[in-house]
Amino acid sequence: MKIAIANDLKLACELLNNLIQKKTRHKVIWTACDGEDAIEKCSQNKPDILLMDLLMPKLNGAEATREIMGKAPCAILIVTANVAGNVSLVFEAMGAGALDVVKTPSFDINTCEVETQDLLKKIEIMASLIESGSSKEIPYVLPADPSFAGHTVPPLLLIGASTGGPVAIRKILSSQGTDFPYATVILQHVDHEFAKGLVSWLQEKSSVRVSLVEGETELKAGEAYVAGKNAHLVLNPRMRLNYLPEGSLDTLLNKPSIDVFFNSVARVSGLKGIACLLTGMGSDGAQGLLNLKNAGFDTIIEDWSTAVVYGMPRAAKELDAAKYCLPIDLIGVKIRELIATKNSPAAVRS
């Protein structure tokens, strides 16, 4: 893979360059000292993966990401020294098309090895997604599990997203009123370190309460729950959200996997709701969306016209998993229409 680095600190460029040259199979093709420089070099020699800093002169990493994704799109990993202090900018960059974010490895002997491994792991995951063009399929068995009987759960709104997802999810949440009658579950491909920041960022524009799933969690109408660990979220036999034990389905590229969660819901007979698969690279969520459609859910995918990356919605469309294909600005409208129809007197009588 051809890798490029955009960072205004020469020391950081040298650190990243050395790590890639010595510890990966990839090659660094250029470095850029600011956002404008990165845009120009991308147009001349497009990398497979660009390691982009957030805080740079002329154009910051979020602005540069938006320009690059419009002119010479490539996989962008935000690599920055202070993630917690730049939450809004992090998710602005991810909304513009950055795939993920990771902390720049430090020179602190107590943390540098862990931070280095985190960076190298993310680079390899991106490389695998690019090379394969999809995520690995998840085994799925349709029959309902009888152990689920006797438990209740409110109607569900399920949202799965990856590249460009934070902004898309925020638009959907901002369209919900305070009396939203469904429990919303969100699976966004993002490292667990940044999940709390994502929750805070989504809450700013949301009328419903947004919270992080830390462990077994009861679902309540009018609240939104965000998967927040590097583990697979499922709906368990007690009809509550929880994570699979550490080591479960470790071969899957995405943790949490949208497919794993969608399938855990689809196998419960009698559940009703709406499921959305938004912008993202690969195919995670496509098979699960089809299973939800077959289980009676209304299913929606984001149209290519607004998706930052049309990979996941395209995979779902190819499986005929979606009842509706809409631009992001119309998905919230459609959700409200579907809920209103189901709650109408005629629907109740039927």
UniProtKB/TrEMBL annotation:
Source organism (scientific name): Estrella lausannensis
Transcription regulation as UniProt keyword: no
GO cellular component entries: cytoplasm
E.C. number(s) listed in UniProt: 3.1.1.61
Name of the protein in question: protein-glutamate methylesterase
InterPro entries in the cross-refs: CheB-like, CheB_C, CheY-like_superfamily, Sig_transdc_resp-reg_Me-estase, Sig_transdc_resp-reg_receiver
UniProt domain CheB-type methylesterase: residue ranges: 150-342
CDD domains per the UniProt record, alphabetical: CheB_Rec (cd16432), REC_CheB-like (cd17541)
EC category: hydrolase
Listed GO biological process terms: chemotaxis
Response regulatory domain segment(s): 2-119
PROSITE patterns (alphabetical): CHEB, RESPONSE_REGULATORY
Catalytic activity field: [protein]-L-glutamate 5-O-methyl ester + H2O = L-glutamyl-[protein] + methanol + H(+)
Pfam families in UniProt: CheB_methylest, Response_reg
Gene3D superfamilies in UniProt: 3.40.50.2300, Methylesterase CheB, C-terminal domain
Keyword Cytoplasm: yes
Superkingdom of the organism of origin: Bacteria
Active-site residues (renumbered): 162, 189, 284
UniProt-listed NCBIfam families: PRK12555.1 (NF009206)
Modified residues (4-aspartylphosphate): 53
Molecular function GO labels: phosphorelay response regulator activity; protein-glutamate methylesterase activity
Keywords, ordered alphabetically: Chemotaxis, Cytoplasm, Hydrolase, Phosphoprotein
